[in-house]
UniProtKB/TrEMBL annotation:
InterPro entries assigned: Histone_H1/H5_H15, SMH1-6, WH-like_DNA-bd_sf, WH_DNA-bd_sf
Gene name, Swiss-Prot/TrEMBL: LOC108860607
Taxon lineage: Eukaryota, Viridiplantae, Streptophyta, Embryophyta, Tracheophyta
Low complexity bias: start-end ranges: 111-124, 320-329
Any single biological process term in GO: nucleosome assembly
Tagged with keyword Oxidoreductase: no
Keywords: Chromosome, Coiled coil, DNA-binding, Nucleus
Name of the protein in its database record: Uncharacterized protein LOC108860607
């Protein structure tokens, strides 16, 4: 018998024995639900079936990395999956030279995300890059596969053969609820409080048995973020996602970022500083209802933007920035309170509960109690501005008829008269106090003189 054949047979037997007795492959193939298995799951599986050394987890991590580099396993995020490579023995090839000494061609192993180098500029992983591409390219309606792929080509050494991997990574992100697909476009999932509660209830069962629980970072220097960006980069995304024209308050911005990142315990203070910095930098403005992104104006545009506007004004004066500014000044900003009162009003006006529910439905998200308290202050202000009138617990749009104007004018005249009278009385009281003080000082002088005269008489002077 050919010794080479025996050697080949022995190698195949050893390979089969290795796979049969391979606890790592056994763990992944047993536990895998289609998305892969993390290192904790593999470790617990092997530990339950074998006696392992004290530092086996470190050994296991090195073993998994080695297998990924050999294309035996694929790592997606923190999950490992077996790569099924089609061997040459399971394929048939036709050849015109059956006796040729050249070995039969073996198909190239499939390309995996581990074959794609990290971005040279940031060092971020490929899967992180896919999510970053969606956030960057997104124009409000999401980004399609072509736009995402073109973005990735700028940061990674990839070609057309990697397009399938991009699609798989996007599909996996959709299944993990990191992305949502609308038509053929992908968007970052906007997590609402209801979605968050459902997700937390689902994940709490698995988190109980996991060492990798979400623990808030101790300080602003201790971040552990899933997408690779600092939370400050999410401030503008939070506002642009949730703002319907009248701003987003700081609590809603905080909740939006908290649902996506592991943040430090002092992040509310950090967020306040970040928002104030952006307001002073004229990126944001703080209105009655929260923070809004500022459009580019002559006050906050840089030199290149000013030059571009000047050129555009010369080319088309009809659409110049000055005409746009005058147009915007003629159109008052949208006020959700006025919209709510005028829409709900059935003759008796609208109470604060109805106004709150109307705005909440308009914004398509659950508003905090902090917003309700703020709404009460806004309603009081609108009443003082004679925009609304309050009848018991209901608010109405104040229609200024001639009679109403006369009534307001009369009330204002009375208020001015009362104010003048009180001012006069206060002035007279102040003058009377000054006179009394002067009399008291004179009396004290007379008393002092009498006391001195009495002392001289007593001494016989």
């Amino acid at each position: 018998m050919d010794p080479a054949a025996n050697s080949s047979s022995d190698d195949d037997s050893d390979s089969e024995d290795r796979h049969v007795s391979d606890p790592v492959r056994e763990a992944i193939s047993t536990i895998n639900d289609g998305n892969g298995v993390d290192i904790d799951g593999i470790y617990e599986f092997v530990k339950a079936r074998r006696d392992v050394m004290p530092n086996y987890r470190d050994v296991l991590e090195g073993e998994l990395n080695t297998r990924v580099s050999r294309n035996e396993l694929e790592k997606v995020g923190n999950l490992y999956r077996i790569i099924h490579v089609v061997s040459s023995e399971s394929c048939t090839y036709e050849t015109t030279e059956p006796d040729s000494d050249e070995p039969a061609a073996v198909p190239d192993p499939p390309i995996t995300s581990s074959d794609i180098p990290s971005s040279s500029s940031s060092g971020e992983s490929y899967d992180d890059g896919v999510l970053k591409a969606v956030r960057t390219v997104n124009d409000g309606n999401g980004a399609d596969i072509d736009e995402i792929f073109e973005y990735l080509k700028e940061g990674y050494d990839i070609g057309p053969e990697h397009r399938k991997l991009v699609e798989e990574s996007l599909d996996l992100s959709v299944s993990d609820n990191l992305l949502e697909m609308v038509g053929n476009r992908y968007r970052i999932v906007n997590v609402t409080s209801e979605d968050t509660n459902e997700t937390r209830e689902t994940e709490s069962k698995s988190v109980e048995d996991s060492d990798d629980q979400k623990v808030p970072a101790a300080s602003s220097t201790d971040y552990a973020l899933p997408y690779g960006d600092m939370p400050e980069a999410m401030v503008m995304e939070a506002i642009s996602t949730m703002d319907y024209g009248y701003g987003v308050d700081i609590e809603e911005i905080y909740e939006y970022i908290e649902n996506r990142y592991k943040i430090p315990t002092d992040y509310m203070t950090i967020l306040e500083d970040e928002l104030n910095k952006r307001v002073s930098g004229k990126e944001l403005e703080k209105g009655e209802y929260g923070y809004k992104i500022l459009g580019v104006t002559s006050d906050n545009m840089d030199e290149s933007q000013s030059q571009a506007v000047a050129v555009a004004d010369q080319k088309d004066p009809a659409t110049s920035s000055s005409s746009a500014a005058s147009s915007s000044s003629r159109n008052p900003p949208y006020d959700p309170v006025i919209d709510a009162v005028s829409t709900i009003n059935g003759g008796n006006g609208a109470d604060i509960d109805g106004i709150f529910e109307f705005i909440q439905a308009k914004m398509e998200r659950i508003l905090s109690e902090n917003f309700r308290k703020h709404l009460e202050q806004v309603l009081k202000k609108r009443v003082s501005q004679c925009i609304l009138e309050k009848v018991e617990t209901h608010y109405k749009i104040l229609h200024l008829t001639p009679e109403k104007l006369d009534e307001i004018s009369e009330a204002a005249t009375k208020a001015v008269a009362v104010s003048d009278q009180k001012e006069l009385e206060a002035k007279e009281a102040s003058e009377a106090a000054d006179r009394a003080k002067k009399v008291l000082e004179e009396n004290q002088l007379v008393l002092q003189a009498a006391k001195e005269a009495l002392d001289r008489c007593t001494r016989g002077d």
